[in-house]
Design brief:
The chain is of the alpha/beta class and 253 residues long. The protein has one domain: Rossmann fold (3-Layer(aba) Sandwich), CATH 3.40.50.880. The chain has 8 helices and 13 strands. It has a 9-stranded mixed sheet with strand order 4-1-5-6-13-12-11-8-9, sandwiched between helices. It has a two-stranded antiparallel ribbon with strand order 2-3. It has a two-stranded antiparallel sheet with strand order 7-10. The longest helix is centred in the last third of the chain and has 20 residues.
Length: 253
């Protein structure tokens, strides 16, 4: 299929300072994963471009919320920052929190990963542990920043899929091995969200929106890391891509 005919997926950028200048950035692994395994193309959306939001969304066939080193500002779930060194990205928060309900109303397919998973939870009224290690009984979900990239993204623990849930039906599995690179996690689950996966200790690792008509899936782990090594990751991206293709065809792209 020619690239120009592929479904178009929007990826909101993170805003960060590089050598004292602001940049809008997206990790290459996310772009590569959806291009290769969802069979879509993508457009990177500057997070401070709020005025063009509706125009951009109307041109899309899907939306991807990536992971990031930054975190949702605790103001968003009525909390205060506990660690002065916690990385935040108010520009991304503002864009995402304005866009998501519009995206859901449009029935636009959405896949949310790591930070995106946490954004989705907070948007639906949930809250987060700012530090799983310091504030909860859930240990060992973060990663060693001194380790090699391969070791950081290696398999960390298992998750159990809810029987009869979306991931169970998609994969035919009740359990899967995943990586784990998150210091924060779900404290209170947002309203109207269905749990799709739990860690061995009971931490929410994936959910869907109960009453949303369009494809949606939010996962805490990183399926974009080498999907060729994980059947579960491939199935997630393939399902996302199929939904984007169907959306594109319904709208006569």
């Amino acid at each position: 299929m020619p690239n120009s005919n592929k479904p178009l997926v929007g990826i909101v950028c993170c805003r960060k300072e590089i050598e004292r200048h602001p940049f809008h950035v997206v990790g290459e692994k996310y772009i590569k994963a959806i291009h290769e395994y969802s069979d879509v193309t993508s457009v990177l959306i500057p997070s401070d471009d709020l005025s063009s939001m509706r125009s951009i969304l109307n041109r899309l066939d899907g939306f991807l919320l990536t992971g990031s080193l930054s975190n949702v500002h605790p103001d968003r779930y009525s909390d205060k920052i506990n660690d002065s060194e916690m990385l935040i990205d108010p520009s991304r928060d503002e864009y995402v929190f304005r866009a998501i309900k519009k995206i859901i109303d449009m029935e636009l397919p959405i896949l949310a990963i790591c930070r995106g998973f946490q954004e989705m939870n907070v948007i639906f009224g949930g809250s987060l542990y700012q530090s799983l290690e310091n504030e909860s009984d859930f240990k060992g979900h973060d990663f060693d920043r001194n380790a090699s990239i391969e070791d950081q993204y290696d398999i960390s623990h298992s998750v159990s899929f809810e029987e009869g849930g979306y991931l169970n039906q998609l994969t035919g599995l009740l359990e899967a091995e995943v990586n784990s690179l998150h210091g924060q996690g779900v404290k209170q689950l947002g309203q109207g969200l269905n749990i799709e996966a739990l860690s061995h200790g009971g931490l929410v690792e994936a959910f869907t929106i109960r009453d949303a008509a369009g494809f949606n899936l939010s996962v805490q782990w990183h399926p974009e890391w080498k999907p060729e090594k994980s059947a579960v990751s491939r199935k997630i991206f393939e399902a996302f891509g199929t939904s984007c293709q169907e959306y594109s065809e319904r709208h006569g792209r």
